[in-house]
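Q: Predict the bound structure with 2-phosphoglycolic acid.
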Amino acid sequence: MRKKIVAGNWKMNKTAHEAKALVAEIKAALGGFDAVECVLCPPFTDLWVAQDGIAGSPIGLGAQNVHWEKSGAFTGEISADMLKEKGVTYVIVGHSERRQYFGETDATVNRRARAALAAGLKPIVCVGELLAEREAGSTFTVIERQVRAGLEGLTGADWEKLVLAYEPVWAIGTGKTATSAQAQEVHAFIRKLLRELAGAAADGIRIQYGGSMKPDNARELMGQPDIDGGLIGGAALQAASFVAIVKAGA
Ligand code: PGA
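A: Predicted complex:
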């Protein structure tokens, strides 16, 4: 059985001051609820207050990026050790916004994912096709390329720490959610690929759906056999909608 995992990707939102209030609200609304794993991925500057805020709760902390080197002359980047010192256990890697706006490639996604794993962090590796790619009928080709290249070189215990997120780019922030059938079809395809790459471990790997997941569609999406949680953008910025989605996974 795969325990569902819902992660809030705050993107470039919330000052530390605002983060403190949001974390407190989420913590209060969740209470001790731990039937679904809940992870907050705020901006780096909020990690400090978020670490304090989640203390004593089952909520986990994630970051939105990590560099593959341990330290050095990499202006604007952040290392795994820096994240771990702030209580981070998960890190989003290869989000489509990083791919679209910041030159992230399958090769750099792979380097980041491997570095995260080597440092003991659990990567949430994102894949997803553009609208033009879906319309051209190349969804599965794109997903297969991203999965194979992004996960190249993973072995043994790596698979147990890995989380994948399928986020069709046309559904992110657009209010246009993939139907549960569209999402399940791709998730099942990813699971099949994982069986080839990871063998029996594939059945334990959680695959989140992301892209306009909301309280009113979360239960239906997470009710699909291969959808093991959600990566939530817009709806993660308010405690009520985020907590409703987390609870919908139970
Ligand atoms: P959205 O973002 O929920 O606002 O569509 C999801 C994501 O980009 O992770």
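A: Residues 9, 167, 172-173, 210-213, 231-235 surround 2-phosphoglycolic acid (CB under 6 Å).
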